[in-house]
Amino acid sequence: MATGEQIGINAESAVLAAEDRWLEAILARDTNAAEGILHPDFRLIIGIEGHPLRIMPHAQWLAVLPDYRITDCSVTDRQVSVYGDIAAVILLWSQTATVPGDRDISGHFLITDIWHNSPQGWRVIERHSSRQEKAA
Fold first, then answer.
1. Which segments in the chain show pLDDT lower than 50?
2. Eight-class DSSP state of 52
3. What CATH topology corresponds to 4-131?
4. Nearest 5°: phi and psi at 30?
5. How far is CA 50 from CA 10, 43, 65, 111, in A?
6. What pLDDT is recorded for position 100?
7. Distance (Å, whole) CA 74 – CA 26
8. For residues 84 and 102, what is the distance between their CA atoms, to the nearest angstrom?
């Protein structure tokens, strides 16, 4: 019988594997692969200084993905916490990228991904994105 700690480790590994598959889909701009990872209620929430939260629903995020061009990226830290059938992955993300209209969205970001363990496996239900603070 698996202990709670073993179950947590297995869930953590499964969430990180799903996170890796999602990153691969984003970098490949593969809407079919991304669709298989997104929860039906997925939304991206973006924090922009001086503005209310920008909420991008599932369909809009998928529509933008083919034009989300990442030419360089890195994850410098990643932490995962599992709470039963919900998990949170926090990552420090840097990218050189453009979105439709060739708008530059390069920078260093703090990303929070919220995952739900559904009958179809771990599916990302929400992503929060904001720019990292500058070091003092």
1. 1-7
2. P
3. Nuclear Transport Factor 2; Chain: A, (3.10.450)
4. -95, 100
5. 41, 21, 25, 19
6. 82
7. 13
8. 41
Q: Which residue has the tokens 């929430």?
A: 45
Q: Is 73 exposed, middle or buried (0-12, 13-18, 19+ CB in 10 A)?
A: middle
Q: How far apart are CA 27 and CA 29, in angstroms?
A: 5
Distance CA 114, CA 69 (A): 23
Torsion of CA 79, 29, 120, 53, to 10 degrees: 60
- Please name the helix (run of DSSP H) or strand (run of DSSP E) that holds residue 31, with its range, or none: helix 31-35
Q: Are 42 and 116 in contact (CB under 8 A)?
A: no
The model carries a pTM of: 0.87
pLDDT of residue 8: 55
pLDDT at 49: 84
Which of helix, strand or coil describes residue 93?
strand
Closest by CA position to 68, among listed 41, 46, 89: 46
Residue 132 in tokens = 């990292």
